[in-house]
Amino acid sequence: MARHPSAERQHRYSLRRNLVNKKNTSALRTEIKKIRTLIENGDKEGAQKALPRAYAVVDKTVKKRTVHANKGARYKSRLARQIEKTSPAASK
């Protein structure tokens, strides 16, 4: 356990940052899962409409340094590629 006052402050700070990072990471994963679910269901239009929201969440997590910039770019690139590979849903 931390004994010095500066170490105690740093520990409190790290706990706060941990909560913020966890919240941001959770939001990022949720958006990515939504798009991947749409892709699996073959809903190309829905996935394309959801893509800007996912891009915004990725960019916010990168800006807050929760995720490294290259990892954010990789997420965006892979999602876009997966959507393009998806064949449009059959008309009913």
Give a quick set of tags describing it:
3 helices; single chain; Methane Monooxygenase Hydroxylase, Chain G, domain 1; mainly alpha; 92 residues; elongated
Short overview:
The protein is an all-alpha fold and 92 residues long.
Task: Give structural notes.
It is a single chain. This protein is mainly alpha-helical and 92 residues long. It has a single domain, classed as Ribosomal protein S20 (Methane Monooxygenase Hydroxylase, Chain G, domain 1), CATH 1.20.58.110. 79% of the residues lie in helices and 0% in strands. It is built from three helices and no strands. It has helices at residues 5-40, 44-63, 69-85. It starts with a helix and ends in a 7-residue tail after the last helix. The mean pLDDT is 92.
Helical residues, percent: over 70%
How many structural domains in the coordinates? Answer: 1
What is the terminal separation in angstroms? 63 Å
- Say what the CATH topology is: Methane Monooxygenase Hydroxylase, Chain G, domain 1
Give the structural class.
Answer: mainly alpha
Identify the CATH class.
Answer: Mainly Alpha
Average pLDDT, to the nearest integer?
A: 92
Shape: elongated
So, the CATH homologous superfamily? Ribosomal protein S20
**Tally of individual helices:** 3
Any idea what the CATH architecture is?
Answer: Up-down Bundle
- Most strands sheet: none
Topology of this protein?
Blueprint: H1 5-40, H2 44-63, H3 69-85
Helix pairs in contact: 1-2, 1-3, 2-3
